[in-house]
Design a protein that fits this description.
This protein has 13 helices and 23 strands. With 467 residues, it is α/β, with parallel strands linked by helices.
Length: 467
């Protein structure tokens, strides 16, 4: 007889495994089906390995500048094999941690390809070659996404790479072109440039990180230029050719047509939902443009089947690992029938771990104006921040966007040192419906980078102190 569960998760990434833990906490019998390793794309070929390599890149930059601090470090070189080994160790350690959490919470893990037989029954082709069936009162689809390409560009992971192919390179490229300047594109641009590659970034839209506030994208482009990264915004790739171990990219910019050559091309133009192999039609679940259609409670067209994360239609404008986790929690709380903690999308933090870091939350200045707000903006440069000066990291600024009438905090946009950590303060402030007055008058430790956020809030009030 098939095993029977209260809920079966299809996909073991940050959505599926976190949802499984929460479901177990709520007393449900839970199974998780994962085609490869629990932790999913984020842990194994996405967020975590990329950030591990970026940590090495950032440390390399610091050590090369150590003379300014009175520390003499001669003959600083990169051991790329060691970088890759450390990345693998980080991933392995965290993978073991997720496996432990599954055991601790008594989640039954099935490693294999899951597919719908009908609305309540799943077939699983296990990696050992056997088959099993699971019966579920509820199913949560958390299969995530996969890298996309553009028409006419074939990703072969030999010379034309996706993000997984880029992580698997055995040597630092002499040169690499990157198509797309979202989070993936600018993070790889940062790490490869720090490791010594010649890097060129092509972006279709007018600024880098084009989903973020325009000032952030403009500042990042200037920072990239200082690091020797070539940037072409408002550029359209029209042709990609691979010949004799070289990638030749033809692109248009305005009325001009240009070409560039590189050892590799990284295609970082976004990701698409993963529903292949699910036999989703067998369950009667509706799709919309290839993504699973859901209601605000993450329920699909079938009342007992839910979906979250990158695989669903756009509940949120940003598809991020931490969003998938919170969506999964909300979905299983709905399944369990208890108190539900809905995802508050306006406060979703959007960190980008490029060099320098970018971190944003809420509305950009343009978005706030388009939504009819009378906007008041405050800014503060890290050049005037004591701790940034101490650290020798004075690049960047903090920008807050507020409602001029009542001071409500609408958005926080930062570029500079450790801003991916500083952003949490802005997230909590907005979640509590805080104002720039409360943010600006709250006492902040001195000397800390966090004072830049306080000063930006004060600037929105016309009371900035150190600028």
């Amino acid at each position: 007889m098939p095993d029977r569960y209260d809920v079966v998760m299809i996909g073991g990434g940050p959505g599926g495994y976190v949802g499984a833990i929460r479901a177990a906490q709520l007393g449900l019998r839970v199974a998780l089906v994962e085609r490869e390793k629990v932790g999913g794309t984020c842990l194994h070929v996405g967020c975590i390995p990329t950030k591990a390599m970026l940590q090495s890149a950032e440390l390399l930059e610091h050590v090369k500048g150590a003379k300014e601090f009175g520390v003499l470090a001669s003959s600083v070189t990169l051991d790329f094999a060691a970088v890759r080994s450390r990345k693998d160790r980080v991933v392995d350690q965290l993978h073991k941690g997720v496996q432990f959490l599954m055991r601790k919470n008594k989640v039954d893990v099935f490693v294999g390809e899951g597919r719908f037989v009908d609305r309540t029954k799943l077939g699983v082709a296990l990696t050992d070659g056997s088959e099993t069936e699971l019966v579920a009162r509820h199913v949560l689809i958390a299969t995530g996404s996969a890298p996309r390409s553009v028409p006419g560009v074939t990703i072969d992971n030999v010379r034309v790479l996706d993000s997984t192919g880029a992580l698997n390179l055995l040597e630092v490229p002499r040169s690499i072109a990157i198509l797309g300047a979202g989070a993936v594109g600018v993070e790889f641009a940062s790490l490869f440039r720090a490791f010594g590659s010649e890097v060129t970034v092509l972006e279709l839209l007018p600024t880098l990180v084009p989903l973020e506030d325009e000032e952030i994208g403009q500042a990042l482009e200037k920072a990239f230029a200082r690091r020797g990264i070539k940037v072409h915004t408002a550029a359209t790739a029209t042709k990609v050719e691979v010949k004799d171990g070289t990638v030749r990219i033809t692109f248009t910019k305005g009325s001009e047509t240009n070409t560039l050559e590189a050892d590799y091309l990284l295609v970082a133009v976004g990701r698409g939902p993963m529903t292949t192999g699910l036999a989703i039609a067998q369950a009667g679940v509706s799709l919309e443009k290839g993504a699973v259609k859901v209601d605000p409670q993450f329920r699909t067209s079938v009342s007992t089947i839910f979906a979250i994360g990158d695989v669903i239609t756009g509940q949120a404008p940003y598809r991020l690992a931490h969003v998938a986790s919170d969506e999964a929690i909300a979905a299983v709380e709905t399944i369990a029938g208890g108190e539900v903690h809905p995802v508050h999308y306006p406060t979703v933090p959007r960190p980008t771990f490029c060099l320098p870091q970018v971190a944003t939350m809420g509305l950009s200045e343009r978005q706030a104006k388009e939504q009819g707000y009378e906007v008041k903006v405050g800014r503060f440069s890290f050049q005037a921040n004591s701790k940034a000066t101490i650290e020798g990291a004075r690049e960047g600024f903090v920008k807050v966007v507020s409602d001029a009438k009542i001071g409500e905090l609408l958005g926080v946009h930062m570029i500079g040192p450790a801003v991916t950590e500083l952003l949490a303060e802005g997230v909590v402030a907005r979640a509590l419906e805080g104002t720039v007055l409360e943010l600006g008058t709250a006492v902040h430790s001195h000397p800390t980078l966090s004072e830049a956020l306080k000063e930006a809030a004060l600037d929105a009030l016309g009371r900035v102190l150190h600028a």
